[in-house]
Amino acid sequence: MIKLLIADDEALVCIGLQSMLKWEQFNIEIVGIAHNGAQEEEMIDTLRPDIVISDIKMPIKSGLEVAGSVRQKYGRLPLFIMLTSYEEFQYARGAIEVQASDYLVKLELTPEALAESIRRATATLEAYQSIDSYPKLVHRGNLQAQRDKFFIRLFNNLFENKNQYLLQKEDLEVELSEPAYLVCTCRILGPDTVPPRGDKLVALCSSTVQMAKDTLSSISACYVTSLDLRNFALALPVPGTDPQLWMEDIQKLLADMASVLHNYFNVTIIGAIGFAVEDPYLLRESYLAARKALPAAVRERSFVFFTEGEAPLQEQLLFDFSESRSEIRRAFEEMDTRALYTIISRMIEIFDGRADLLVPATDAACNILYMATSLLADGENIVEQIFEHEPEGYRAIYQMHTIEEITGWLIQFRDGCADILSTRRQSYKEQVVKNVQEYIKRNLGTKLSLHQVADVFNFSPNYLSHLFSKVAKVNYVEYITEIKITAAKEMMLRGEGRIYEISQKLGYESAFYFSKVFKKVTGLSPRDYMQQIEADTGNVRGT
């Protein structure tokens, strides 16, 4: 997808731009919002967007100054679309001097005008698209959605092991290096003027979460994760595990955020704060503590802190997923609808009519929901389709208060999955293998062991190996070798270094081992192959 950065010192303008178009229809992901020129340039340096929509006049540094500075550093990309409230020629001339893709007047801006400007920019982008001129142009699509899934897995203890967590954390460039972290679960309440379902509610809640991200963007290593339509979670850095070190600051931070969101959207934000942990891998414990305190936050319509005075966390009646997790994972991985149907039916039998098991039943349903959206390539769309006729869709699970409602939700999920997944098995598997192949091509400089890549994609190594061989018609190791040797031949043809340098770039432990593999695949040593290239080039020149 194409990365887009929006920069304007007026928050309402930023929100308007976000909602003016359905950006996914243009294959565009909004990766950041900047509110002054200095922040804009910093985000361009770190996020490397392909297109920047920038206000010309902003605090600290003007949009024109930023564009000029970025042009000197990175050349013709990213493309700039300049916005202004003024129609004076000097601004248009300035936009021309920094080679802006377009120049738009805010008062005249319509969805049609913006869409046309974006189409021109994307057409220009396609013409410029080149790895050599802009190395970051090829990137993983929808990074924010993948990070949301990462934190959902983390909060709900869905990683198979810590190594899998570390690999995905590195792959998604999630920075968690502060002394300690805590989780705050937030809920959006009101306003009564918005219907309980429909596009207006979706727009309100998504804009509210986006504004929360913008409000907290100045805090390093702070992550905002959408849990569902009305609920989101904050992973916040703190100086240590002692609440006295951070409680007052966190309380003020959340109150300020809630005030901003109320002023813009007339919503009330309430939430619960868990305890701090030094190891981010244990954030699930803080998340569970926050969830335990959330009912008190709902009663008081405010932010509350989890306290040890409440029942110890380990005594909560939560669903034990340890025995079922591997079964459910395998069922989702292999699209085994029969096994999935059996597992969920077993849970429904356990919970049916047991009002005392409302909490573990809710947790079971939520865990299955999170696994579906995390493990299935199109998971969120699948569950949305299952609950498309329900108020608030699948997210209605958070409004359920009886065991009958929860078991009804599980029955609908079970039956819907059986219907939809049975028709998608082959196309889904092909998409998984395609995603793995694209990941391999983006990471040729690493060893790319089967276990490592399986962890990145949240699969078991045995399953990924079997699936890859069946769909790609070549085993995993052979594919890696073939892709790396093809890349090596292209690098030799372009003269991109000596043999040992090429072997290093492709992640081989030594030039000797690289040469051995190269000869086995091509029949020639790397040296002989390079000499052959030189001879062929000389023959062409001589003719």
From TrEMBL:
> Per the database record, which ranges form the Response regulatory domain?
3-121
Database matches in PANTHER family:
ARAC-FAMILY TRANSCRIPTIONAL REGULATOR, RESPONSE REGULATOR
What SUPFAM superfamilies does this protein's entry cite? CheY-like (SSF52172), Homeodomain-like (SSF46689)
Name of the molecule in the record = Response regulator
**List of residues that carry 4-aspartylphosphate:** D55
* Keywords, sorted A to Z: DNA-binding, Phosphoprotein, Transcription, Transcription regulation
| Pfam families, per the entry | HTH_18, Response_reg
The HTH araC/xylS-type domain extends over 434-532
InterPro entries attached here? Answer: CheY-like_superfamily, Homeodomain-like_sf, HTH_AraC, HTH_AraC-typ_CS, Sig_transdc_resp-reg_receiver, Tscrpt_reg_AraC-type_HTH
